[in-house]
Amino acid sequence: MSDTAGDYLDALARFVGQTPAQAIPPAVLARTREILIDTLPVIAWGMRQPPLMVLTQTQLAGQDGAGRAWVIGSGRSAERINAAMLNGIAGAWLDYDEGNFLANGHPGIQVIPAAFALAQERRLSGSALLAAIALSYEVVARIGMATQTRLIVNPHGTFGVVGSALACARLAGLAPGRLRELASLAASCCMATNRHTMLNGATVRNWYAGHSGFMGPMALRMVEAGFTGPSDGVNTTFSLVLGEGFSPQVAVAELGQRWLLLEGYLKLYPTARYAHSAIDALHDALARLGGPLAPADIERIDVRAYKLAAFLSQQEPTDWFGTRFSIPFALATLLVGGRDGLAAFSDEAVADPEVRALARRVHVVEAPDLTAQYPALQRVDLRLTLRDGRVIEGACHITSGEPQRPHPAAALARKYQDLAVPLWGAARAEQLHRALLDIDNCPDVSQLVDFSP
């Protein structure tokens, strides 16, 4: 589909609504399965956090048995909009979910909760669900890539509302002629989000992804009820409200030929993606050192980074949530050692005096020359100055997990096991893994496995 094929918004809407499932490349479907496998245990861990447990209890009070959509990690099911909202919040809670540099955000967690819930509610097939996720992911990613997003705006709950709505429309069989209006209406229901919530450790930030899960299917209900949208809500919202410019040409360039879904990343650390670039630079420096390094040996660490990474310069996060958005803490907790995975970014780690002292010796600044190279390069330069006078340098040019530098399959398998086994036990974790690998052949995703994760 070319970028001259009529109105860009109509082209995006038709792409989701009318692309046959068999026209989606096998590599795209394989990556979609991989994202699902990564996402479900991340959602479940988020759902086990105390605020989510309280919210789930309150939101579903008196509604047990009211729907067949899983509230993943709670052992409960719900009507699809509640399930999509709660799963969206939970999936963003630990900042461990899939994302995409080009999209400036996390397309997967914006569309998966709503699509998964509707497919379960309507007892649709796994192949229908995979197609809806893959196609709507592209819309989210392309709108994100086409937008010059204001730095203050957190991307959750913005582009994702459009993709969430279109995914639901495809699964629900909305008439093709109404998809463009749905996309325009959905874009007019985005949130005015606030990136400072990350620096302040404010967990309201996690609601933003829940808003995509909630508002996407709600936009569909509104259109079905007769609500109307503006002539072009996407361009208005993303060029004037949440962004400082929007390019329709970029949004549809090579649509159906270049798949941004194949250009995203999965995380091995539960932190904002930009911190991973600094972590990679640290590993490079340690490899060059070639020997053991005790935290007490370090005089200071200097990090030169692109703008979005330099935004994560907070040296003293006050709780586990703030650790997700602090490069100084991330480097310190990994250098102190003794903790791994989620434990390295826990309240216990925040309270560790050795971690806190080292984090205060990590200094992050923006380097305009590195910002100019982003996103083609996610370059971070790091310098370890040791107390004995030695200086060790490290760098990251392409962050690990990008298509040019993929994670080893064993590392991703370990992440799944580390998350899924404590939640569901080895047998059930393996059962879910096999079911997701074979989801194309599942006739009813409400019966994907014989338990409610």
Task: Report what the structure shows.
With 453 residues, this protein is α+β, with helices and mostly antiparallel strands. The chain folds into two domains: 8-268 and 413-447, Orthogonal Bundle (2-methylcitrate dehydratase PrpD), CATH 1.10.4100.10; 273-396, 2-methylcitrate dehydratase PrpD (60s Ribosomal Protein L30, Chain: A), CATH 3.30.1330. Helices cover 52% and strands 9% of the residues. The protein contains 20 helices and eight strands. The strands form three sheets. The protein has a four-stranded mixed beta sheet with strand order 6-5-7-8. The protein has a two-stranded antiparallel ribbon with strand order 1-2. Residues 1-6 have low confidence and may be disordered.
Return the average pLDDT rounded to an integer: 94
Tally of distinct domains: 2
Task: Provide a count of the helices.
Answer: 20
Q: What fold name goes in the CATH topology slot of the largest domain?
A: 2-methylcitrate dehydratase PrpD
Task: Write down the secondary-structure element order.
Answer: HHHEEHHHEHHHHHEHHEHHHHHEHEEH
Question: How is the main sheet built?
Answer: 4 strands, mixed
Portion in beta strands: 5-15%
Radius of gyration: 22 Å
The percent range for helix content is 40-55%
Number of strands: 8
Q: What general form does the structure show? A: globular
